[in-house]
Amino acid sequence: MAANKEHVLQFIQIFDKKIEENHQYLTDLDQAIGDGDHGINMDRGMKAVMEKLPAQQDKGIDAILKAVGMTLVSTVGGASGPLYGTAFMRAGMAVKGKDELSAEDISAMLQAAIDGIIARGKATVGEKTMLDAIIPAKEVYDAAIAEGKSIAEALAAAEDKAWERVEYTKTIIATKGRASYLGERSIGHQDPGATSMTYLIQSMKEVAQA
Ligand code: ADP
Ligand code: MG
User: Fold this and answer.
1) Does the beta carbon of 196 sit less than 6 angstroms from any atom of ligand 1?
2) Ligand 1 in contact with 120 (CB < 6 A)?
3) pLDDT tens digits, one per residue of 80-98
4) Minimum-distance ligand 1 atom for the alpha carbon of 30
5) For the CA atoms of 101, 103, 106, 108, what is the dihedral angle to 10 degrees?
6) Tally of CB atoms within 10 A around 145
7) Do the Cβ atoms of 82 and 118 come closer than 8 Å?
8) Residue 193 CA: which ligand is closest?
9) What's the gap in Å between 35 CA and the centre of ligand 2?
10) pLDDT at residue 133, rounded to an integer
11) Is residue 96 a contact partner of residue 59, using CB atoms and an 8 Å limit?
C-alpha cells in the first residue's frame, strides 16, 4: 500500500506527540553530554510546526514537508533545528509533485533526509549523532523492501535497527556537535539526537501500521 498526504499529516502529528511526551527524557540525555536543551528545542520546533500545519493542509506533500523544515530551521536555536529542518525540506524535494508515495519514494525521502543532514552537519556514521540511527535504519528498510516486505514491515525493521543503534551510541565517542567537547567522557551516554530520530522512524511505522 502506498502512502498519501493524510499519512504524512498523521506522521507529523504523531512525531509531535512523541517529542512532547519524551521531551524531558531527551533533555536529560542532552544534559549528560551537551547543554540540556534537545527536548526543549525539538518540542518548541514541533509546536511551531503544529501551529502552521492547518494552513498547509491543502498543499501537496512536498510543500507540507518543506514548510515543516523551514519552521524547524527558523524556530529551533540548537544544532538540531537546521539539521532536522534540512532533512524535512530535502525529503519534500525528493517527492516533488507526488500525491502517492511508493515504498521506493519513502526510501528516496529517507536518503534525501540523510544527504541533507550530512550536507549541513558534515558528520558521518560513528560520530554519535542522529545519523547513527537514520543511516542503518534506512539500509534495513531498503533490504526489507527488496525482500518483498510491506512498507509497514520494512519500517518496523528499520525502527528495531534504529533502537539498536541508539544503544550503540553509548559505546562511541562524540566527534561532532557539543558532545564532542567531552571527548572520551561522552562514552557511556546515549546520543539525544539519535534517540529523537528513532522516534521519527517509529512515527513513520505507526502511520504505516494504522
Ligand atoms: P545543540 O547541540 O546545539 O544544543 P541539540 O541539543 O538540539 O542542539 O541537538 C543535539 C543533537 O544534534 C546531538 O545529539 C546529535 O545527534 C545532533 N548533532 C549535533 N551535531 C551534529 C552534526 N554535525 N551532524 C548530525 N547530527 C548532529
Ligand atoms: Mg543541546
Assistant:
1) no
2) no
3) 999 999 999 999 999 999 9
4) 6
5) -110
6) 21
7) no
8) 1
9) 5
10) 98
11) no
Ligand nearest to the CA of 86: 1
Q: Is the pLDDT of residue 1 over 80?
A: no
Q: Are 179 and 128 in contact (CB under 8 A)?
A: yes
Residue 59 is classified by DSSP as S
Q: Is 116 in the pocket of ligand 1 (CB under 6 A)?
A: no
* Ligand 1 center to 79 CA (angstroms): 5
Residues 152 and 158: their CA atoms lie apart, in Å, by 10
pLDDT (tens digit per residue) in 160-175: 999 999 999 999 999 9
Atom in ligand 1 nearest the alpha carbon of residue 118: 24
CB proximity list for 58: less than 8 A, separation 6 or greater = none
Q: Which residue has the cell 533545528?
A: 81
Domains, the chain: 3-209 (1.25.40.340)
Q: Please give all residues whose CB falls under 5 A of ion ligand 2, grouped by chain where several chains appear.
A: 30, 34-35, 37-38, 78
How much is the mean pLDDT over the chain?
96
| pLDDT recorded at residue 116 | 98
178 lines ligand 1 (CB under 6 A): yes
Amino acid at position 63, single letter: A
To 10 degrees, the CA torsion angle through 83, 84, 88, 94? 40
What is the distance between the alpha carbons of residues 115 and 117, in angstroms, rounded to a whole number? 6
C-alpha triplet 44, 49, 43: angle, nearest 5°: 25
